[in-house]
Helix-turn-helix domain, rpiR family protein (Lapidilactobacillus concavus DSM 17758), 247 residues
Amino acid sequence: MFHNVDLKSLSSLELDVYNYIISHPKQVQSLTIRELAQAAHVSTTTISRFCAKLNLSGFSELKYVIRDELHAEQRVYPSYDLNTPLTEFFTKVSRDEFDQKINDWLELVFDAQLVILLGIGTSGSLANYGARFLNNAGALAFALTDPFQPDAHHIHDLSDCLVVVLSVSGSTEQVLKQASEFKQHHAKIVAITNQEYSPLARLADLTVSYYMPERNVGDNINMTTQVPVVYLLETIANRYADKVYKE
């Protein structure tokens, strides 16, 4: 509740109002502003200031917001059916043109002295997984998951480096900034993204898109399935291992 409120901007008395409301949202629905003030041990003026900091016109609108939040929490959402999109994905990866794209990616891995998998959030976890899988296959790879990593690229020529960038949207600002810095220092970029025509895709030397229906829940939390990304990371690592051990 009140996901966008900046708690640091609230005074101690306003925090008392906030804490009372989130602890007793149903009871607040039936209270007047004076009754809420008494219950939270603050003045009605404090409640009015609290409403203003939430960009609300007053106590009446505050009660509407609380009611809507309660209704949203009780709403039943339809299940997220993965069968159809995943079936379509695995049908697509069996086609020759997709297989060629994987082979192009594999050649970039072989040409690189170092492979960096870049991602944040869920994509960061997958970057760690992919780096470990490539290590298992015999490649030199590591994950970069800190979006605030200092830029030391200017002291290096990264032309023998491959950066595999994982991003569902392909438009995350911190990821684009880091990818651009690698690109400026001559690293090759492979984008693994859900959006073929994203800013990240335009930046990359090679883009592999997986086209899953995006799902966001709660406070805009991305729950888009990452099964295709795991498949792609394991496929490239296994093909790398096959080629290494055959040679």
Notes: The first strand starts at residue 114 and ends at 118.
